[in-house]
Amino acid sequence: MTQIIGLDISKASVSCCLISAKIDEPREFYYRYNFHKFAATANGINKLLALIGSERENTIAIMEPTGVNYQILWGTQLARAGIEVRLVGHKELRSFREHHLGLPDKDDDADALALAIYGWDYKDTPRRFVQTRDRTIVEIRRLVLRLAHLNRVQSPIINRARQDLAWQFPEAALIRSLRSGEKVPLLWGWLCGERQSVKYDLMLQRSIGLGITAELRRHAARICDLQREEMFLEFELSKLVGEPQFLAYRRVFARFGFGRRVEALLLSQIYPFENYLAADGKPDIKIRKGRRSGKPTKRHLSLRRFCKALGYAPSQESSGDLQKSKVVGGSDLCRKALWQWIFTRIEPQRCRLANDTGDRLGEIMDSEKASGRPVRLVRSRVAAKAVKMLFNELVRELVQNPKSKI
Prior knowledge:
The chain has 15 helices and nine strands. The chain is of the alpha/beta class. The chain folds into three domains: 3-128, 2-Layer Sandwich (Nucleotidyltransferase, domain 5), CATH 3.30.420; 136-241, Helix Hairpins (Orthogonal Bundle); 249-312 and 330-402, no CATH class. The radius of gyration is 26 Å and the shape is globular.
């Protein structure tokens, strides 16, 4: 007997709703059902498993992807107990709950019920759920998110240190110091006493600054600690991205000149590529009647799903004579990383990729800028074009040339 359990996860607890049949009157069910709430403790997990009972193999747990901090605990414990776990996107669940179920004002119990009903209604439609990732991809994504966090943490510390350098050692305030192999950046390492530098010693002797304070040295030590953590995470990331199943993907990424972090970020979002294809393993293309032209029109559904996952699928918003489109959904990290890649590898002619990809995107970039369009809009348009080119290259590498996967 199939049963569905909806789990609305909070910081230190979870609200549960277990159903074993279709719910015809959600509002009535909401008021008469005895919802369960368990704490994030060993006793709470045991009570949750006891609620599910002996039908673990026939149970599907439905929850929202609340990041690596909350959902991962309950999802991992349920998976270890042999229970299938599926994730529902926030936007999809909100729409389902508000427009399909008409449940009362949002609370944890109503969300748990909505998750359970969603799971029951769509249990035989895998595309209604967030794609499941294998363990390697989950770990890659965790490392990518951690690196993004470290980058956000470092920025204000470095900015504060440079502001202090402006009056303590102004000659070094604008120096861009980078890591060298496994060594921390020379400037910050020298400031906190971890590295020696005759150059900076001489500069400090001749400086017009007021002298380096202990507070600035502590800032430099913090920066070095964060840089060491970054190095460790990047080493772990390199090992994971270098695994054999990703070789074909990385051959395609090499044509675009993506760095290691961007490669890992893209892999964490699009692997396996088969998730974007039709049941026959080919791009999903439907021919439908155009709403305006009335003529048969191709709808590239796989391409649109791929673009949306990377944050570059515009949605149309029209009302009367007003027509506009905007990008919604997808990965903000991927959208930002691709925009920065355009800014550093495509827009500057001296750094432009010396291959067909760089030539095509560079030509579009130069033409768009020459037409007088705002540069931010131009970068976004070129990035969207690059995503479509990436999709086509992956199709050629993985679908049309399947031997390349080996």
